[in-house]
Amino acid sequence: MKVLAKAASLIRLVAVSLILLPGLVSAQGRVVESESHRFTEIADDVWFASGTGSVFTMSNAMVLVGARDVLVVDSHVTPDAAEALLASLRVITDKPVRYLVNSHYHFDHAHGNQAFPESVEIIGHSFTRAKLAGEIGNVLEEATFHSFSDGVPTLVANLERQVAEENDPTRKAQLQERHRVQRDYMNAIGDVVPTPPNITLETEMTLFQLAGRGSREIRLLHLGRAHTGGDVVIFLPRERIIFTGDMMLPGLSYMGDGHVDEWPATLEALKALDFDILLPGHGPPMMSKDPITNFQAYLTDLWSKTSEMHRRGVSAEEAAQQIDMTNHSDNYGQLRQPGVDVRAIRRIYTLLDN
What we know:
Blueprint: H1 5-10, E1 14-15, H2 25-28, E2 31-33, E3 37-43, E4 46-51, E5 61-65, E6 70-73, H3 79-88, E7 97-101, H4 107-110, E8 121-125, H5 126-132, H6 143-149, H7 152-165, H8 169-189, E9 199-201, E10 204-211, E11 214-221, E12 233-236, E13 241-245, H9 263-271, E14 277-280, H10 290-311, H11 316-322, H12 342-353
Parallel strand pairs: 6-7, 7-8, 8-9, 13-14
Antiparallel strand pairs: 1-2, 2-3, 3-4, 4-5, 5-6, 10-11, 11-12, 12-13
Helix pairs in contact: 7-8, 9-10, 10-12, 11-12
C-alpha cells in the first residue's frame, strides 16, 4: 500500500450530529468523519463509506470490521481516492485490511485496487478479473471510461475560468475548492493501472469473519448479469444488509455495459434475499424493496420500446431522442420529456444485433 504520511495529519475524528439516513442512523449509531470520508455505522462494525468532497471518490464503499481484520468493498475511482480511504480507516479501526471485494469492474469502483497492499486479497467475479486483466479489451480504452473521463479537463478549465471571474469571496472560495478537487482527480487518472482480482468466483463464495459475537457470514453472490457481466452483491444474512454496487441504485443505473434484457430477472433474485437495508454503489441506503420493482418495470419497458425502434430501423441516436419513458416519472422525477441516455440505447442495439 502507498502510505501517505501527509494524509495521516489531515485525518480528524469528529462527532457528526446530523442524521444522514432518516430512521436509520439515529437508531443504529455513529457517523464518523475523516478529512476525505464519512463512515456511517449501519450495524455493529458494518460501515457505509462515502466521500466528504475533499477527494473525488465518485462511489460508495462498505467496510466490515472484524476482531482481527477488515474487509473493504470497492476501491473508488483512482489510486489517490483509495489511498484516502485506506488512510481514513484508522478513524474507525486499527485492524489491517485483509480482503478487498470488487462489486464489478467499472472504473469508479475498481480503479483504486492498485493502492491496496500486496498482502490484501482482491476478490471479484471471473468476468471482473478478465476485464481488469485486459483479457477482454482494455478498460482504459473503452467507451464507458472515456464517456465519463474525457470531459474532466474541460470541466477543470471551466472551473478555473469561473474562479478568475468570480468576485464574491465566499463563492470564489467554493469554486477554488471544486477546481482543486477536480484538478487532483484529472491528474490522478493518468496514474491508474488496472489491477484485477486474484481470487474469483462464478456464482457464490462465503467468507466468515471473526467478529464480536462470533463469526460474521459474508456471502458474495453473482445473481446474474445486470449492470455488467460480473456483478457481485455482498450479503450479510445476520445483519440483513446487502451491498449491491451499481446493480441497484436509488435512481437509474448507467446501462452502457448492461444486460438490460437479463437485468430484471437478476433483480428478482435480489428481491428474494432476506434483507432490510440495501447499500448502493452511489447514493443513500434504501430500506424498501419497492425501488427494485420500480427499476424492473423501467428496464422491461425500455427494452421493449428500444426493440421496437430497432425493428423499425431507427438509428440508436435517433431512438435515444425519441423514446419516451415519462410514464415512469412518478419514480424517476428527472423523466420530464422524451429522451434517454444514448449509451444505453447503443448497448441495447448491440445486444439485439447479436
